[in-house]
Amino acid sequence: MHNSTKYCRESEKSWPTQTIRLIRGAVLATAFFVAATTASRAQAYQRLHQKATVVDTHNDFPNKSVEYGYLFEQSLQGKTHSDLGRMKKGGLDVQVFSIWCDGAYGMGKGFARANRLIDSVQAWVARNPADMMLVKTPADLKKAVKQHKLATMMGVEGGHMIEDNLGYLEQLYGRGVRYMTLTWNNSTSWASSAQDESGNKVPNAKAGLNDFGKQVVQRMNELGMMVDLSHVGEQTFWDAINITTKPVIVSHSCAHALCPVFRNLKDDQIKAVGKNGGVIHLNFYSGFLDSSFMTRSRAFNQAHKAERDSLRKINPEPYFADEYLFERYPEEVKNLRPPLSLLLDHIDHIVKLVGVDHVGLGSDFDGISSAPQQLDDVAAYPLITKGLLERGYSKKAVRKILGENFIRVFQANSKLP
Length: 417
Hints:
The structure is a single chain. This protein has helices spanning 3-13, 17-51, 61-68, 84-89, 110-127, 138-146, 166-174, 194-198, 211-223, 234-243, 267-276, 286-289, 293-303, 305-314, 318-328, 330-334, 341-354, 382-390, 395-413, and strands spanning 55-59, 94-100, 132-134, 150-157, 177-181, 226-228, 249-250, 279-282, 359-361. The protein is an alpha/beta fold. The strands form two sheets. Strands 1, 2, 3, 4, 5 and 6 form a six-stranded parallel β-sheet that branches. The chain has a three-stranded parallel β-sheet with strand order 7-8-9. The longest helix is centred in the first third of the chain and has 35 residues, at 17-51.
């Protein structure tokens, strides 16, 4: 036995019994306090998350539902990122579902496809009236949250679905659509996309909005439909931001400075959204968060080149092959995913540029093939709250990021209370 240890124990024998009890009691009390404090901190982010109104502005489950026949109220663990049960588990209060189709649904097809997807969303709500509520106004949203129902909203992802017809835009609004992304990856006849502008493949006479495109933005303002600037080219972005009389949203994009891909916003664009009073909602896709993800992804694709080439013959859009291969080889994909901290880095970047009032969450779940580690599905949202608190964000700031910023813009655009 070490001499000092022996001395301490021998000395203890001469202490009064009451003193020994007091010392041991103090040690136990300290240990209990440390454990209780740790548990309290762990519970603090969960309490905040549950009390906050959590909003996600972009989820692609409608297309999964139509394509695969999935029922939203069923447990789809292992098949999708989303289902009703996991949204409840993740503390999600408001979900804007994407009404999306690719450029193959052009004139004569896009509007019909949009309506089919809207039918699907409305069917979920009709089957689950105790758990879901279709939201068209800020008052509806407030009521749904108060009744602990999923506030179910819709946004059209791609202006090609109005088929150059303002009447179709108005009909979509009437059915509950509350934002429209001016373009998807494909340009329309009236607006150029980020993919086309960055690749110098703009099909129109010039990039940006033409006269009809400007009418679309103006009519959206009049209706109370939020203008969404994800996916749009830089010229389209600047044309729209200069025309709109209402705050815009960017429903699912990230910061170009941290990950320079065509779909992300440059710092001057971020500042313009801040000046406009709008909100940028961050996409969870690994390739929009992590600048090195695509290098790792290309190595993965090369390893599965033959399979990928076959898939591209079925559908040339990259998302189709990516989604299939990522689901087929989950263990390999796990090593490709960036850490959750990168999503928080993008939030930090926007906050430093324009403040905490202009950032939110737009996961793109069920429309992406890879998300950061730990963000496996919609049940994982509390981890974002935890991460923000650990970075020193105040509870007030976290509530804004989680949903209050979106609600403010929704109210500013809405013609109804």
